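Incident log, entry 3
Record: Gentisate 1,2-dioxygenase (360 residues)
Problem: checksum mismatch between cached and fresh output.
Input:
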Amino acid sequence: MQTMDGRADSPELEQLYRDFDANSMAPLWTQRDDLMPPVPSPKAIPHLWKWRTLYDIAKRSGDLVPVGRGGERRAIGLANPGLPGTGYATPTLWCAIQYLGGHETAPEHRHAQNAFRFVLEGEGVWTVVNGDPVAMRRGDLLLTPAWNFHGHHNDTANPMAWIDGLDAPFSYYTDVGFFEYGSDRVTDEASPDISRSERLWGYPGLQPLSEPRRLPSSPLSAYRWEYTDRALAAQLELEDEGHPATVEQGHAAIRFTNVTTGRDVMPTIRAEMHRLRPGASTPPRREVGSSVWQSFEGSGTVVLNGEELRLEKGDLFAVPSWTSWELHSDSGGLDLFRYSDAPIIERLGFNRTLTAPPAG
Ligand SMILES: [Fe+2]
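Fresh output:
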């Protein structure tokens, strides 16, 4: 051992360090570099998961592992190689592929963790949120905010897979989790095209007077692809007409918002959809906080801390805090879904962004 200024050991100093250990004490000067790096230095690493591989393995789980009470979900977490033993995509975000076979039911439960589902492809599953059946279809974002009962049932003979996003790692580190079982079957097996939540909350700019409160999470349980797609298309059309609408040239983006506040859909998770025109690029950016992206349609590349990775439909990638990221679209354009822990980071005042000018 050494002192802070590098002086050599003495028997007294060695005894001092033994006494630190024996009395459950940890001197800052041995940890300062790790605790207070000059810039964020995440243990999580930038990582890409190929949808083709995830889907194939999830399908095999469907053949081998029954879904039911106890395990609750046939959901397989994307485990960041920099966070071994955790099954977490980032320090705050869980991301899993969930697979439900034909006519299977995932039983109802509720938990303090906030959750959503995002559908890459397929349909035929209804997620029942507090007794309200919500159809799940391609491109839809479905919310299950904290403490709402939810289960899923597949009304068809065909399997369906989607991604689940949760704040489970954040909840785990902060010890805020509660969990309760609900009905073994979903409480309503109906399969309506449109949920009661959408009928009450799904009209732009119109809040029902029966529910005038501002709620911490959005009461709208489904954000339909039809509207997301039209909103992104309109931004690019407006850009063509010379009006301000896009984030930057050729890059349209929307944020899914809490319909009672205009803020993020849930207190811990931000969700967005991005569309790059054919051949468009984004400048390199670094942000405090972590995110997970899924390539939804089209193809292109993402550059993470200088490493270029190919993106095909469904591929997922984790972007840890302060990782430099930039996107490039191929000739067919590129749509991407993104979720992040930005609401936590911003509410606590830790947010910083660094955007580099486009190269060349
Ligand atoms: Fe759940």
